[in-house]
Amino acid sequence: MGHSLKILGRTSSINVRKVLWTCHELGIEYVREDWGIGYTPTQSPEFLALNPNAQIPVLIDDHGVLWESNTICRYLVSLYQRHDLLPAEPAPRARVEQWMDWQATELNPSWGYAFQALVRQSPEHQDPQRIAAGVQGWNDKMGLLEQQLTKTNVYVTGDEFTLADVLIGLSVHRWRMTPMEHPPYPAIAAYYERLSQHPGFQTFALDGHN
What sequence ranges are listed for the domain GST N-terminal (predicted)? Predict the structure, then answer.
């Protein structure tokens, strides 16, 4: 399938790397432009015309403009009809999307304060009590993933690698690499080792990213 594709966003963004790893799984060629912190600001009129939320990533292709990383990943997988990554049947698809949405709406917000404090060293995020609460909340959410992986024993939704593992795999890497207390979650540890065998994970998680 011929498909002209441009991705706007810096690779230090975990949300950009969701899209890049998805492209890797699909074998898609793309052009990427750096936007965001340290690069051209997303508050510029040019960028706001593409995404009024001023957030990366943004995808531009033959069909138009898309923003929101999970939506972009769903779109690309559906466009290339990779039903192994996102099933066509409603019930198995919903199980994958359930965990994708959990990553975006529950897990992702849980690390905000602690990650800014401990990794980004943000001066505005140095309240010890809020850091401790952030670490606890983050670990609690990861405990839910531990329960799920204890049930499935392989990947997030079962025996097969899916799009949910792209999103959650990057999140697991961020959690492990953040200098804080980590509960001994054996199912997550085994999951992380399993993901480490995937070339996409090696490129977009292990290769110096957090």
Answer: 3-84
32 pLDDT tier (thresholds 50, 70, 90):
very high
Task: Please give the helix or strand (H or E) that residue 61 lies within, else none.
Answer: strand 58-61
pLDDT, tens only, 101-146: 999 999 999 999 999 999 999 999 999 999 999 999 999 999 999 9
Residue 160, burial from CB neighbour count under 10 angstroms (0-12, 13-18, 19+): middle
Residue 57, preceding bond cis, omega within 30 degrees? yes
In 10 A of CB 184, how many CB atoms? 7
16 contact partners, CB below 8 Å, separation of at least 6: 7, 9, 10, 56, 57, 69
Which SS3 state, helix, strand or coil, does residue 67 take?
A: strand
Tens-place pLDDT, residues 78-96: 999 999 999 999 999 999 9
Would you say 25 and 82 are in contact if contact means Cβ atoms under 8 Å apart?
A: yes
pTM value is 0.94
